[in-house]
Amino acid sequence: MMAQIQGFENIAPFLSNPLVLIGFVVLIFFGLLRTLLKTGIIPPLPRTTGGDILKRLLKYAFLIALLIILLGFGLEAYKLYKEPTSSEVVSEIKELLNPIEDIEVTYKMSIPLGHDSIRFYRNRLNTAINKVVNDFISRKVTFNAGNAATGTELTRQLGIGISTGIPDENNYLQPTEFFIHSNSELLPIGDKEILIKSLLSYTGVHFTVYKEKIDPSKYENIFSSQHPAADWEFGVSVGDWREINPNLTFVYSVNSDTLIIEARNIKIEARNFWTKTDKIQSIEDLVGTQFFIHPNSMNEALGEQYESIRKELKSSISVEEVEIHVGKGKVLRIPVTSASITRSNWEEEVLVYQVQESDVI
Which stretches are transmembrane (predicted)? Predict the structure, then answer.
């Protein structure tokens, strides 16, 4: 008896498979039937009746065997369908190791100042900048490591920083760029500069991201009802530039007609995304995604006399640089020069770019 129990223990683990269990039950059934026939408990049957029963047994035995085979194929197919593939397992591991939670966005945006409607501000800015340039040149600052970016009393009064380029033939430094801080009087003020003040106050960048790319012509605007359902949607803004903001600088180049907004490390919490699906969970999921980068200045109520001019000004705004810090020390750098361009139904320039593996560093 003990030997029989030990024999069953050897085969019991295999019975966890339902097909093996079915086959085992069928084997026991036919084994018992064979034993009963041998013992004579079942009386002999006439030849005709016995033949008929034998045919039935063979028929149903064949059908049962066929059913078991089909169930076996079906069970294995179901397992293959349910079990994750090796790539899915790797993807899940990467999601656990490199999840995207909160992000930080750094970007540069150019605001052209050449339009006649903002000439008052452009002239005021250029007058102040030329005064600073002449004052700096008159000091004959020579090049050395200690004063390569030396400011003056005038630059401190105006709330600006100064950057110098290659020294001239006399080894004197020449101003090339000015960094206008958010509390500087050189930023737009008063009713005569209302248009440029409106643009700077409400200009931000909106990101609409698709895991599976769409036809760019289907993107009309930042509002969810005006483009196909996205996997990520979020916006970043410089906020109120009239307040002290260490993450915001306006850059103006000498003899330039463009004001550059430099916004650095603007934090966006994942819970504040407009849209966030589970298709983009990890840093690796970003590869292949399609980004729509929309420089957007929301419409402040200025009156009908400004609307057509502001629309024209907004259409000339462009994004010059984008970096998204996605965690784990990884940065997604979008090469805007490689992006294609579409336009929103507000006539604003929208960059379209599909992320490559080399863009995540």
Answer: 20-37, 57-75
Contacts of 176 (CB under 8 A, 6+ apart): 163, 164, 165, 253, 254
Which string of DSSP letters, residue by residue, matches 9-34?
HHHGGGGGSHHHHHHHHHHHHHHHHH
Tracing tokens 């399609």 back to the chain, one arrives at 290
Which pLDDT tens digit goes with each residue over 307-324? 788 888 888 888 999 999
CA distances from 275 to 105, 191, 258, 355 (A): 17, 37, 33, 19
For residue 31, pLDDT over 90 is answered with no
**Other C-beta atoms within 10 Å of 205: how many?**
23
Place of tokens 């033939």: 169
Mean pLDDT of the chain: 81
Whether pLDDT at 84 is above 50: yes
3-class DSSP assignment, residue 335: coil
Q: Give the count of beta carbons closer than 10 Å to the beta carbon of residue 296.
A: 21
Place of tokens 């109520």: 301
pLDDT tops 90 at residue 346: no
Torsion region of 322: left, alpha or beta (phi above 0 gives left; psi -120 to 50 gives alpha): beta
Regarding predicted confidence, which is higher, 279 or 34? 279
Report CA torsion sign: 155, 156, 157, 159.
positive
Task: Give the angle 338-340-344 at the CA atoms, nearest 5°.
Answer: 145
Q: pTM value?
A: 0.70
Cα distances from 25 to residues 64, 72, 253, 335, in angstroms, run 12, 16, 87, 67
Token pair of 77, please?
């197919």
Residue 212: what residue type?
E
